Amino acid sequence: MIRRLFASLLCAWLVAAIPARVQPVAQPTSHLYLPLVSNPARITGDAPIWAHAQVPAAHEVVLFRENIYLDSPLSGAQLHIFADTRYEAWLDGAWLGRGPARFSRTLREFDVHALGDLPPGEHLLAVLVQWAPNIRRSESTTPYLLAHVEGARSGSLVALARSGPGWLSLPSDAWRKDATPVHAWGLIGPTELLDFSRLPAGWNQPAYSADNWTPAVVKDISQVSFQPLQVPPLEPGGPVRFSTLPSFAAQSSSLDLESVTFRHRSIPFLANVPITITLADAGALSPGLAMGELSPPYPANPLLNFSLPTTLTFTVETLTPFSPTMRLDGNPLPWQAQGAQRPDTWAAVVALPGGEHSISYSNLPPGGVTFAASSAGVSYSQFPFQQGAHAGRRLLLVIPKATPPACTC
Predict the structure, then answer these.
(1) pLDDT tens per residue across span 296-353
(2) Nearest 5°: CA angle at 95, between 115 and 143?
(3) How much is the pTM?
(4) Residues 6+ away with beta carbon under 8 Å from 55
(5) Superfamily grouping for domain 42-228+245-264
(6) Domain coordinates of the chain in residue numbers?
């Protein structure tokens, strides 16, 4: 008992004798602020240009020209360029390249094309820009072009030919605006249906006269209408139905060049590499058949009249079995699927006597109709062929037939 009391007193004395730990006094925190040095891409000093300032159509193509006058050499010249959605560029009639790489709404990679050393005199920069937005390639906002040429002159870096109202522009109708999309969901963009007769010959060459072109319009892109895709949830195990996809809902949003980050392309340019073609076979496409196409606006009573000199086997082919809308001499056609080798292709084969016959159409679809009909021994009054908006259907319908080798006997 005495030992326990003595131990307790000793412990209490030791605790009182040990000084308390000294706590450090908190010192005020000092912050040193340094200025942020920013070097934005010089392309942000270019003006976004287009051929007009109106709401763009779903697909537009604009041609641009800019003359560059040099009174002294420009060393190490470069073309800095970006376009929504894509471009091709030429200098003095020589093709430079195409682009840009895929981009997002706020991060866009511009291209830099090396031009070498440009001698004094006049040079021509020509650019073709296609506005063809699609939800797979890039986050397009509005059609515009940014571009300038820079290089060293008298030891100083200079920027010339900045995109602006000094550039000339020409909207082109050589590309069909109602061309069917490559993919039904709009993932890739429109098919390219180009009528070269409507494209000015030599428009990208220095000798071309652009007297009828108009000055480019500087676009105000501070207000851009975005159209987010809203896809309904799929039922478990249910099919994807294109008809259930709702239309885009416009949503106003703000975007200007200050909110977009431009940087150099991070992936290599695509290169035009010559290839050697090896002929594996030769022949004809759908021999004995004529390719026909009807596209809106349709005539009131579309009718295809033809005559046969004698009894013949008459063949009609199409990509959809639309027997209720296509009749031969007023009778339904006996459509038969052509199997796995020709998917979505249907054919009707009928023995017809000599004389006058006709094919009638009704309830024609808004996207047009592509078909093939016998041509050997058949005389048509006027075989219908129109440049429809869906050239791919003709490629699916034709049958390649190899030419038999010449007899060596």
Answers:
(1) 888 877 788 999 999 999 999 988 755 457 889 999 899 999 988 888 899 999 999 9
(2) 95
(3) 0.73
(4) 225
(5) Galactose-binding domain-like (2.60.120.260)
(6) 42-228+245-264, 283-402
